[in-house]
Amino acid sequence: MVQARRYAGGVDGNRSLERGIEILRAFRPGVDTLGNGEIAERCGLSRSTVSRLTRTLVNSGMLDEVRSERAYRLAASVVSIGHAMRTGSPVLNAIGPMMRAESAKRRLNVGLATADRTMMVYLESIRYSPRAALRNVVAGQQVPMELTSLGRAYLAGVAETERERLLKQFRRRSTAATRALLADVRRSIGSVERDGYCAVSWQPAVLAVATPVVLDGLPVYALNMSLQNVDRSDALASELGAYLNAFAAKCKEVLAGG
């Protein structure tokens, strides 16, 4: 049996709104439609509660009802919200053109991401050679925080209390595997503190380096550069890291001035 999720509500929040947001979060890449039963299982809610909330979300234009399947799918208004966020972001407006220019200049991929719980969500992803890419990374796509250079750079940039809270959520099937993962993550954090960046190859033949972007008044971001169809080496990682550190310094200067 799925354990019911706890929702705060009270004076600091609205439980119905929190539950509605969790229902929207239940739709992930690769999932077209979900029925009330599937949503209830994913969100830890009763079917009666889910039925009431999905009806509200349909009426508000956030979900489309698929009557032939007795299910729901995300509505077009969800895309509109994401588009409004991207076009209105002062960070993307400031450094998005810089990222495109840097990608063309260095002939590599450049990405910007921030955290969504224990995942990293791309805000921008400039692919230098999309046809040669092993996978097509686009804005809005999520990658695991604990496995990627973006996520580990983000962990290096947040406050220690937040970092430790997140580290406690990274679990593997065995205690030994969890310890090995956390030790590797901490090595990457140490690399950021020592060299300004960390290098990770979590996908075959892909080398990525990332650095945190930490400025007052803004969320913590992570900026990365990556190359595909390469064999990882310390020399290549060092070369990419030098490019990244120099580029990140320019981005920070522009963002601080804005």
From TrEMBL:
Keywords: DNA-binding, Transcription, Transcription regulation. Gene3D superfamilies: 3.30.450.40, Winged helix-like DNA-binding domain superfamily/Winged helix DNA-binding domain. Residues 14-76 form the HTH iclR-type domain. This is Winged helix-turn-helix transcriptional regulator. InterPro entries: GAF-like_dom_sf (IPR029016), HTH_MetabolicPath_Reg (IPR050707), Tscrpt_reg_IclR_C (IPR014757), Tscrpt_reg_IclR_N (IPR005471), WH-like_DNA-bd_sf (IPR036388), WH_DNA-bd_sf (IPR036390). Pfam families: HTH_IclR, IclR_C. GO terms for molecular function: DNA binding; DNA-binding transcription factor activity. PROSITE patterns: HTH_ICLR, ICLR_ED. Residues 77-257 form the IclR-ED domain. GO terms for biological process: negative regulation of DNA-templated transcription. The keyword DNA-binding applies.
